[in-house]
Amino acid sequence: MAAKTIILIDLNIILDVLQKREPFYEASARILAAVETGLLKGYIAAHSITTIFYLVQEDKSSTEARAVITSLMQFLKIAPVSQSTIDQALNLDYNDFEDAVQMISALQCKADYLLTRNITDYQPALIPVVQPVDFVDTI
To answer: 33, 69, 79, 122: which has the highest count of C-beta atoms within 10 A?
Structure first.
């Protein structure tokens, strides 16, 4: 039996689903559904969880934010962000440090792909960086 494909999911994909952002919602929702049903193994970087909590709390409530995080944690794994992650990210020549941290997190959890809508932010790509709309056909 082949190993499941491992993906690290960028925050923008989670927000596409939570906020039902068009035209991105459908492909992003299909990615999350594939993780939830076990077709893929999905990770999210640890620092993205705090951002999700903050945004949901600002828009709704802390109770709703806790519920959203609890729901996501039922099927997504956390890609740890450690001192090693930060040290390696500092050596990547990325314009956005958060993107560098995401890329190193993806490598450390042995992701096959990093899924994002902002492919150009992850150059040089150390693993394949793919948009949900392009990845969804591979599921």
So the answer is: 79
